[in-house]
């Protein structure tokens, strides 16, 4: 007698899918029907698996996704922990705005973690934290110490949510995930040993249980392509612009040369960061030209 159960793909290794069900991790293969439909299951997918009388398991259905982002791909992301480096590479508001806009477009919530803050002097730290205070004001939580994250993340990740790290190469994602995984060692060690998993590489994605949900150990999302975004919708992905646009004179205001634009007014009054508005204009140009600017490649 066969039985079916649901779970989440937490890892992929050598053609096998590791699926976390309610009470165990099941290693399974995908049915051939996925090749016919060109539907490739990925980590984060919520799936149905079938287990036959001999105990052999097959992945038989991928349930509808809320999103699919990244290379390698990760499905059903609820929240991104964006790692921004204070130095090496230097902190960049422009890069921060690109990430926030991209994930806003993907309808994924973001928290910000400033790494390597211990490598800069007090003046530079105050300068960066002053800038980040603006992002807190518009709704983005900001963390400065990995110890704070280790304490707060298990409480923040709820009801099978999937969180993942993102950030440029060298920002400290690997260091952060290694800190967090040390705290998870007792919870994940038994599963890892029983499944004989190899060492993690930056070419794979793996989910680790954290709180009531999962944290993705992933290479992150380094390439951000804005060209698929409709240019007249870009302003909606700047959260404070979207809120303020309700007071613009014209519906669908693009905050360019339109009269009585609330967004431009608030920029002029320094209630909105000038750098945010400038980055908005740069992204519009990128979409219009249909390619990523050379200096960002």
Automatic annotation (TrEMBL):
EC class of the enzyme, as a word: hydrolase
PANTHER family in the cross-refs: SMALL RIBOSOMAL SUBUNIT BIOGENESIS GTPASE RSGA, SMALL RIBOSOMAL SUBUNIT BIOGENESIS GTPASE RSGA 1, MITOCHONDRIAL-RELATED
Location of the protein in the cell: Cytoplasm
Species: Lactobacillus panisapium
Protein name, UniProt field: Small ribosomal subunit biogenesis GTPase RsgA
Gene behind the chain: rsgA
Subunit structure: Monomer. Associates with 30S ribosomal subunit, binds 16S rRNA.
E.C. numbers: 3.6.1.-
Chief location of this protein within or outside the cell: cytoplasm
Domain CP-type G: 66-224
UniProt xrefs under InterPro entries: G_CP_dom (IPR030378), NA-bd_OB-fold (IPR012340), P-loop_NTPase (IPR027417), Ribosome_biogen_GTPase_RsgA (IPR004881), RsgA_GTPase_dom (IPR010914), RsgA_N (IPR031944)
Similarity comment: Belongs to the TRAFAC class YlqF/YawG GTPase family. RsgA subfamily.
Cofactor(s) demanded: Zn(2+)
UniProt: GTP binding residues: 115-118, 167-175
Main function: One of several proteins that assist in the late maturation steps of the functional core of the 30S ribosomal subunit. Helps release RbfA from mature subunits. May play a role in the assembly of ribosomal proteins into the subunit. Circularly permuted GTPase that catalyzes slow GTP hydrolysis, GTPase activity is stimulated by the 30S ribosomal subunit.
Keywords for this protein: Cytoplasm, GTP-binding, Hydrolase, Metal-binding, Nucleotide-binding, Ribosome biogenesis, RNA-binding, rRNA-binding, Zinc
Binding-site residues for Zn(2+), renumbered to this chain: 248, 253, 255, 261
Cofactor: binding details: Binds 1 zinc ion per subunit.
Pfam families, per the entry: RsgA_GTPase, RsgA_N
EngC GTPase domain boundaries: 75-222
């Amino acid at each position: 007698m066969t039985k079916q159960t649901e779970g989440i793909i937490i890892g992929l290794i050598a053609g096998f899918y590791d699926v976390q069900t309610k009470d165990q991790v099941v290693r399974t293969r995908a049915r051939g029907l996925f090749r016919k439909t060109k539907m490739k299951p990925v980590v984060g997918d919520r799936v149905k698996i079938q287990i036959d009388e001999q105990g052999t398991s097959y992945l038989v259905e991928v349930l509808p996704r809320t999103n699919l982002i990244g290379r390698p791909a990760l499905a059903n992301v609820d929240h991104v922990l964006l790692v921004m480096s204070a130095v090496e590479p230097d902190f960049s508001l422009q890069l921060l705005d690109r990430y926030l806009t991209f994930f806003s477009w993907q309808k994924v919530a973001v928290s910000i973690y400033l790494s390597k803050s211990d490598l800069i002097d007090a003046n530079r730290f105050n300068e960066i934290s002053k800038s980040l205070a603006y992002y807190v004001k518009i709704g983005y939580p900001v963390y400065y110490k990995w110890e704070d994250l280790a304490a707060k993340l298990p409480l923040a990740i709820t009801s099978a949510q999937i969180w993942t790290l993102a950030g440029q190469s060298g920002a400290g994602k690997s260091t952060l995930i290694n800190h967090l995984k040390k705290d998870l060692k007792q919870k994940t060690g038994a599963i890892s040993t029983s499944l004989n998993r190899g060492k993690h590489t930056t070419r794979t994605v793996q989910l680790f249980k954290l709180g009531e949900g999962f944290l993705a150990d992933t290479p992150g999302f380094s390439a951000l392509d804005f060209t698929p975004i409709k240019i007249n919708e870009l302003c909606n992905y700047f959260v404070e612009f979207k809120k303020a646009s309700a007071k613009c004179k014209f519906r669908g205001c693009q905050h360019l040369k339109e009269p009585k634009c609330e967004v431009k007014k608030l920029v002029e009054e320094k209630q909105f960061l000038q750098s945010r508005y400038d980055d908005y204009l740069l992204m519009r140009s990128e979409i219009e030209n249909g390619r990523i600017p050379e200096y960002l490649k």
